[in-house]
Amino acid sequence: MSQASDPPEKSNAFEEWIHPPLRNCWFLTGPTCSGKTSVALEVAQRLDAEIVSLDSMAIYQGMDIGTAKPDHEQQAQVRHHMIDIVSPVESFSVSSYALAAHQVAREIWSRGKRVLFCGGTPLYLKSLVRGLFLGPEADWEFRNAVERDIEEFGEDALRERLMQVDPLLGHKLHPHDHRRMIRALEVARMTGKPLSHWQQQFDIPASRFECAVVVLRLERSWLHERINARASSMLSRGLINEVKDLLEQHGALGRTAAQAVGYREVLKYLHSSDGEASLSEEELLELIRAHTRQFARRQEIWFRGLEELIGIPVDRDSTTSQLADQICKEFMQTSQAAFIPPESDR
Questions:
Q1: Out of 133-137, 159-163, 273-277, which region has the weakest mean confidence (pLDDT)?
Q2: What angle do CA 194, 196, 199 make, to 5 degrees?
Q3: Distances (CA, A) of 52 to 71, 118, 153
Q4: Were both Cys, which of 14, 139, 149, 262 would link to 1 (CB 3.0–4.6 Å)?
Q5: In 175-278, where do the E strands start and end?
Q6: What angle in degrees, to the nearest 10, is found between the helix axes of 320-334 and 36-47?
Q7: What does the CA dihedral 317, 318, 321, 323 come to, rounded to 10 degrees?
Q8: Was 35 annotated as part of a binding site?
Q9: Is 37 annotated as ligand-binding?
Q10: Where does the chain bind substrate (predicted)?
């Protein structure tokens, strides 16, 4: 395979590529439709905190109904952040989120407020609780050279090349995941160490004293009932028209936004006449429900892999006030986030 230009001199300032964990904060997470928003509002008001969204789709402007963003009334009760910050045609990486979230936390502390993250995107949560390897900036000359090699030699050659420099990651990545394989090659070339090596340090759980992370846990049938009800509500509130408006405004949604549960199904519904069997609204509803249940299952699997999570059981009789009582107790007892850090530590 061909080679790009010689790698740049390796910097000794590897710490520039490491984004540390975010401490002195509270985190409230849980699967979709678990009731996080209402509980977070109650907790934030009791603890004098501002809320930072931990949702990879709430960042997109105009995607309101399908993402179940806090409405204007809720946002008026407690100040919210990281909502409606980018166009739905743009991409927004985990590293972009982590950098922005750290800055938002510093701004909240500067006002003498506490920081409460709320949302259900596990990768965002892990990047803040355990830290994130940002890595060196992209080497587009190298990337383009590898892309040309893929066209000439095929993706099997790409995989073989990755296995030589980072076999651990080579076994994990899907054969078609060219983007991440190229990034792994790029990191190994520029740092002298495989990407899997850099990522290992982020497998260490945070202590509960450093940051309290609460997860709402619902019995499966109860969660599914809530999911089914929300899907019906989204369609009745105008999700289809919201997607039509977004398409009229932008022409198309970006790759990430178009994959959001609820939106990708409506896009299929709107375009199903193009050589596909048309979907009825009833079929659309069931499709959204099924995909949302699958999404919730994937979230729960992720959460089980984060040992620092403190589970809060939620049943049909649980009230917002009762849940807030339990969460506030956990937050105040197990985390230094009860104390706003001095300016020198922000």
A1: 273-277
A2: 120
A3: 14, 6, 46
A4: 149
A5: 212-218
A6: 50
A7: 170
A8: yes
A9: yes
A10: 32-37
Q: In the numeric block, which tokens belong to residue 34? A: 């678990």
What is the C-alpha separation between 273 and 284, in angstroms, rounded? Answer: 14
User: Judging by DSSP bridges, how do beta strands 18-19 and 132-133 pair with one another?
Assistant: antiparallel
Over residues 304-325, mean pLDDT = 95
* 170 carries a ligand binding annotation: no
Q: Is 19 helix (H, G, I), strand (E, B) or coil?
A: strand
Q: Where are the domains of the chain?
A: 14-130+204-345, 140-201
Q: For residue 154, say whether it is annotated as part of any ligand binding site.
A: no
Q: Is the pLDDT of residue 280 over 70?
A: yes
Could you tell me how many residues make up the chain?
346
Mention every residue, 6+ apart, whose C-beta is less than 8 A from residue 29.
36, 54, 117, 118, 119, 120, 122, 125, 213, 214, 215, 216, 303, 309
Q: Which fold has domain 140-201?
A: Histone, subunit A (1.10.20)
Question: Among 3.30.1540.10, 3.30.40.10, 3.80.30.20, 3.40.50.300, what is the CATH number of 14-130+204-345?
Answer: 3.40.50.300
Same CATH fold, 140-201 and 14-130+204-345? no
pTM of the model: 0.83
31 close to 300: Cβ distance less than 8 angstroms? yes
Phi and psi at residue 82, to the nearest 5°: 65, 35
